């Protein structure tokens, strides 16, 4: 006999196949094994009570405040506890009911589909990148003189920085990078912005060179549409915008060049983002910000299959915020987009370990492993080889084979 918690859809599906369950049976039973909780905020008490009765009728549970039961409270939060199969039955029961249940049914249906989606394919201009089976690695190449991690190739205007960039990119690809991310402006806390001209001076020659020498997709870490346009015109395929596409022209550029985009959350701007860091509901606020940015991007013509979201570790967040984001990374699956996370060598790791930037590799790997387990599709890292090896071990453990 064995008693165990539900850990993943893949594990349960494998178990059923090992038993010899008919494929049709697997398809029917798998949703019954996927139990998860859904929290609804400030629901009308009448709606909440109807919802509770419908949940009980299908063998599920719904927790509401006592005041909603006695009639003293007009509003209540609702904690729903059910399997995927039960949620599907619930949606059928409430979709034609009054008191807002029909609208709730549509919202639940969309969010559940997003949350349970596990197959992602990133549409690039000339190819596709499968993000379904395991986390992919985005290798960082900083073309700045003042990178927080100390790896800026443009330091002291090195005459051979093009050769260094090409050598580093080839090494990253060999070590397991699926994307190369190039940045010409530091976004470390307190960093001052540079002009578009200076940013292009640093980054454009590298883009032109790498686009000819390697086949791996190039990502441009910039918040300036003019920089993104020049780089896309020279062979880059992804815009990694720390401002979350705040500049409306960035959307136009992405549409024109059929570029994929990374939409990141940032509270404030790099120069001052760490001075005042306040949230009431951290994850909800980040998710809402990203949702609005997604709607704006898709409304502006960006293909839904070209959008990646990034909760923005270290961008207007303190140590506790960063840890909560990593712990609750799966919450962002509700957006229905691939999730990118960048924890590599960041200051919160240094604060926990008491380590300077050159001694944060182990801490960075730990965050990457947890992030991958919690739903990250892309890991933005400096140490590609070490991260790739760590992920191979994680995947081997998941699959129970070497």
Structure explained in plain terms:
With 402 residues, the protein is of the alpha/beta class. It has 2 domains: 34-116, Alpha-Beta Plaits (2-Layer Sandwich), CATH 3.30.70; 121-400, TIM Barrel, CATH 3.20.20.20. The protein has helices spanning 9-19, 23-33, 45-57, 66-70, 84-94, 101-116, 161-175, 196-213, 225-233, 248-256, 282-299, 319-327, 347-353, 361-373, 384-399; strands at 35-44, 61-63, 75-83, 121-123, 128-130, 136-142, 179-183, 218-221, 238-241, 260-264, 307-310, 340-341, 378-381. It has an 8-stranded parallel β-sheet with strand order 11-10-9-8-7-6-13-12. The protein has a 3-stranded antiparallel β-sheet with strand order 1-3-2. Strands 4-5 form a two-stranded antiparallel ribbon. Helix 7 links the parallel strand 6 and strand 7. The radius of gyration is 23 Å and the shape is globular.
Structural class label: alpha/beta
Secondary-structure element pattern, one letter each: HHEHEHEHHEEEHEHEHEHEHEHEHHEH
CATH C-level label of the largest domain = Alpha Beta
Q: What is the distance, rounded to the nearest whole angstrom, between the alpha carbons of the first and last residues? A: 26 Å
Mean pLDDT: 89
**What is the architecture of the largest domain at the second tier of CATH?**
Alpha-Beta Barrel
Which strand order do you get reading across the main beta sheet?
11-10-9-8-7-6-13-12
CATH topology of the largest domain: TIM Barrel
Instruction: List the domain count as a whole number.
Output: 2
The percent range for strand residues is 15-25%
Helix content: 40-55%
Subunit organisation of the chains: single chain
Please give the largest β-sheet.
8 strands, parallel
- Record field, number of beta strands: 13
